[in-house]
Amino acid sequence: MLRKSEEKKLKVRKDDSFMLRYLRASDFRPKEAFEKMVKVYKFKAKHEKYFCSKSPSEYKELLSQNFITILEDRDETGRRLILAKLGDIDTNKTSVMECVRLNDLWMELAMDEEETQKNGIAIILDLGGLPMRLFKFLTPKVTIISALKEEMRPWKKIDIHVVNTSSLLDKLVSIVYPLLGSGIKQHIHFHGQDWTSVHKFIPPEVLPEEYGGYKPQVDFPKMHKYLYDNEDKLMELFSLGYVKS
């Protein structure tokens, strides 16, 4: 797929697992898959500061805040589930940009999983306890570029479920939401604190108790080990893209 292109400066992995990220996301249409790959890495080259270049070990302190992780179980369709609890971010110890970059650790590993490539992901975006000072850093530019970054990833399917919003947060979200592209907006679902609504999309059997599920609390150290065990793979993935002249 790549050898026939004129993108001589584009450095990517050429193994089956990596190429299948894009082929599966495009229903095995090679031209569309390649165009998607080029689009992703051109976006990365243009917005490099939004992408991760550090190892999980370098993010150990930030990871200890436990505001984003994958869940151990998949849903009944095989989707990988990702939980982001923005209210747990300590804005006195980190920046929004570091949080945006940290997200890549989980997303890159998920994209390398065969089952995730085939079935996609669902993100639970928990806004409960979100500190108002965080909105000072969530400028329209940061919000839009971060959303575009997620929309561009080669997912077979992606859905974002926003939970634990308040009336004030609803007003703030209503300001940002119209700025997002139609592509990402059609995948966003707002549930407030209505767990029955969430369970229409994600069964309670795979969710922690705090989301009306039957699972115990998330074992964050166990999930972090998944990152640490894959440091070499992640560092290789972070190095991919357009080679600078």
TrEMBL record:
Gene3D superfamilies linked = Alpha-tocopherol transfer, CRAL-TRIO lipid binding domain, N-terminal domain of phosphatidylinositol transfer protein sec14p
Listed SMART domains: CRAL_TRIO_N (SM01100), SEC14 (SM00516)
Q: Which Pfam families match?
A: CRAL_TRIO, CRAL_TRIO_N
- Domain (CRAL-TRIO) ranges: 55-219
Q: Which domain of life is it from?
A: Eukaryota
Mind telling me which GO cellular component terms the entry cites? Answer: membrane
Q: Name one GO molecular function term.
A: phosphatidylinositol bisphosphate binding
Give the protein name, as stated in the record.
CRAL-TRIO domain-containing protein
List the taxonomic lineage: Eukaryota, Metazoa, Ecdysozoa, Arthropoda, Hexapoda
